[in-house]
Amino acid sequence: MHFALPPRKTSRPPPYLPRTSRLPGLRRTRPKLIALAGLFFFTLIYLVTRSGSEWNAVPSPRVPKGNPPVVLVTVLDASKYNGAYLETVKQNRLQYAEKHGYKTLFAKITEYDLAGSPFSWTAVVAMLDALSKFPDTHYVWFLDASGFIMNPNIKLEDDIMQPAKLEALMKKDFPVVPPDSIIKTFSRLKGQDVDLVLTQDQEGLSSGSLIVRNSEWARFFLETWFNPLYRSYSFQKAETHALEHIVQWHPTILSRLAIIDQRTINSYIKGAEGDEYQEGDFVIRFPDCALIGPQACESQSLVYLQAWRRAFAST
């Protein structure tokens, strides 16, 4: 009797055939993917075009109202100048400020914590203090105690800082530190874009008379200048040499800097290392008098004390 044999198993498996059960699922999810892509696209368009909304708005910088137009800052250092001389300096500043509706800030060297830095750094922190106390001022003018305002008719915001006037005064493509610094002032800087006005004497930049426009940039500049790193470094002329350093090596500061003729805001008495004062100039300074002794500034200034009083009385 013959029985049917079972089918023999082959050693060759059948070729692999991919499952087709995923294709219906893919077909089912394709509309969802298209809908998500469309939603993403329209969301992107919405975000790009809603520039006027609060979500995407960039806060506008605060614009000072110009009240007062200028704050005149002077540091009173009784260790360098005698009391009688400092009193004439205060009178000089107060009378000039009253004439033009400006405010004054007289800082004492013991008023701020300098963390052991030389007292000359008081000038920088005093300017920061002026911006805090007078947030609506347009300009801060620092003029140190070694001099007088001689021409009361010159108005800072009109005769110097007005953009067209300032642009005519600016020295463009000019060495920042004389005589041959490779770092130069910007050649295309416009008057309305200037936030810092300086002068030079024969030794370099002068920090004895300078003007800062009130802005966020001004705070950045002064805080950079007052950085503990610079105050702890043994610069020969402390804050003045620190100023020369940051102006030359920080493009953000150089880009807002204008250097003007020294006699515009910073004339020197005869014999000092700078442009000599001439009658009619805005300011006269005695930058070396404190090095001689507290009485020297008073003696050097006597002639000019009478001159500025006559000039103020006639206006």
Automatic annotation (TrEMBL):
<dbReference type="InterPro" id="IPR008630">
    <property type="entry name" value="Glyco_trans_34"/>
</dbReference>
<dbReference type="GO" id="GO:0000009">
    <property type="term" value="F:alpha-1,6-mannosyltransferase activity"/>
</dbReference>
<protein>
    <submittedName>
        <fullName>Glycosyltransferase</fullName>
    </submittedName>
</protein>
<dbReference type="GO" id="GO:0000136">
    <property type="term" value="C:mannan polymerase complex"/>
</dbReference>
<comment type="similarity">
    <text>Belongs to the glycosyltransferase 34 family.</text>
</comment>
<keyword id="KW-0808">Transferase</keyword>
<dbReference type="InterPro" id="IPR029044">
    <property type="entry name" value="Nucleotide-diphossugar_trans"/>
</dbReference>
<feature type="region of interest" description="Disordered">
    <location>
        <begin position="1"/>
        <end position="23"/>
    </location>
</feature>
<dbReference type="GO" id="GO:0006487">
    <property type="term" value="P:protein N-linked glycosylation"/>
</dbReference>
<dbReference type="Pfam" id="PF05637">
    <property type="entry name" value="Glyco_transf_34"/>
</dbReference>
<keyword id="KW-0328">Glycosyltransferase</keyword>
